[in-house]
Amino acid sequence: MDGGVLLLITGLSLAPAVLILHMLAAQVKSGTLRRNLLWGLRTRKLQSSDEAWDIGHRAAQPHLYALAYWTYGAIAACFAAALVVRSEEAAGTFIMVVIGIFTAAVLLHVWRAVVVAHRAVEQKLQFAEQLAGGSDSGS
Predict the structure, then answer these.
(1) For residue 57, which of 82, 37, 31, 80 has the smallest C-alpha distance?
(2) How many CB atoms lie within 10 A of CB 70?
(3) pLDDT(138) > 90
(4) Coil, helix or strand for 32?
(5) How far apart (Å, rounded) are the C-alpha atoms in residues 84 and 3?
């Protein structure tokens, strides 16, 4: 099989991922992503309440969009390489490099999204405790 065809197939196989990631980020942005067991950043802290879910996902939104953009980039790289690469061996090497970089970027952004989401929930909880503590001492 021609190396260009392999690259096109690889690029096309990433299309469902980019659609899913972009839809997730768009739902977060529009405020329509509800707490669930299938879709989103599903950690104990974020699943603890609807408020924690919303706060965490809003804070992580830039990283969720970054996931989609990295996927667009991997697709574009595969399509661009398909125009020039003809050897199966070169295509295989290129695919491994692109998928490796893509996987590292996805892992980094998922990790950052969770860290940012948890930090936002923690800050909200601390602020709520400070308010509650301030109103208790004032009465």
Answers:
(1) 31
(2) 21
(3) no
(4) coil
(5) 9
Q: Which residue has tokens 């992580």?
A: 60
Lookup result for tokens 């804070």: 59
pTM above 0.85, yes or no: no
How much of the chain exceeds pLDDT 70, in percent? 96
- Rounded to 10 degrees, what is the CA torsion of 126, 128, 129, 132? 160
Token digits for 4? 């260009």
3-state secondary structure of 1: coil
Contacting residues for 46 by C-beta, under 8 A, at least 6 apart: 35, 40, 52, 53, 56, 57, 117, 118, 121
Burial of residue 83, with CB atoms counted within 10 A of its CB: 0-12 exposed, 13-18 middle, 19 or more buried: exposed
* Closest alpha carbon to 13 in 91, 78, 92, 104: 78
